[in-house]
Design goal:
Radius of gyration: 15 Å
Number of strands: 0
Largest sheet: none
Mean pLDDT: 78
Distance between the termini: 11 Å
Low-confidence stretches: 1-26, 28-41
Shape: elongated
Structural class: mainly alpha
Length: about 130
C-alpha cells in the first residue's frame, strides 16, 4: 500500500485547495457556527495550524476507512449507521490530537474555504506532513 498515503494526501490537499471541506460537514452536523462569518477572517498561529494538519490527516484516514463501507451499504439505514460511526471516529481523531479542539478544527476549515492564503498555507503544510509520514 505504498500509494495509499500520497493519494490520500493529494486528495486531501486538493479538497482543501478547492474549498471543499470534506470532513467539516461530518464534524459540524449539529453544531451551529460559533462566530459570525465576518469574524471568521481571523488568523491562526503556526502551532494551531500544525495541530490542524495532524488532525486533518487523521480525519482523512478515518474517512478513507469508512468511504467504501458507506458506498457498499445495502440500505439507507446502514449508511446512516456507518456515517454516525465515522463521524464519531473523526471527532475522536481530532480530540486526540494535541493542541486543537473540534470547534477550532471546524473554524479553521470554514475560514480556509473563504481565505485563499490560509487554504494555500494549509495545503502546503498538509503536503509536507503527508510526505514525512511516508
Amino acid at each position: 500500500m505504498i500509494f495509499r498515503r500520497p493519494t490520500r494526501a493529494a486528495a486531501a490537499a486538493f479538497a482543501l485547495a478547492a474549498g471543499i471541506a470534506v470532513t467539516a460537514p461530518a464534524l459540524a452536523q449539529e453544531a451551529a457556527p460559533s462566530t459570525p462569518p465576518a469574524a471568521q477572517t481571523q488568523s491562526f498561529d503556526d502551532q494551531k495550524l500544525q495541530a490542524f494538519t495532524v488532525a486533518f490527516l487523521a480525519v482523512s484516514e478515518v474517512k478513507e476507512q469508512y468511504t467504501q463501507r458507506f458506498q457498499q451499504a445495502p440500505s439507507d439505514n446502514e449508511k446512516q449507521q456507518i456515517q454516525t460511526e465515522a463521524t464519531a471516529k473523526m471527532e475522536e481523531a481530532v480530540e486526540t490530537t494535541e493542541g486543537i479542539s473540534v470547534d477550532e478544527y471546524n473554524q479553521i476549515i470554514q475560514t480556509a474555504q473563504t481565505d485563499e492564503a490560509l487554504a494555500q498555507k494549509l495545503n502546503g503544510m498538509i503536503g509536507e506532513a503527508a510526505k514525512s509520514q511516508d
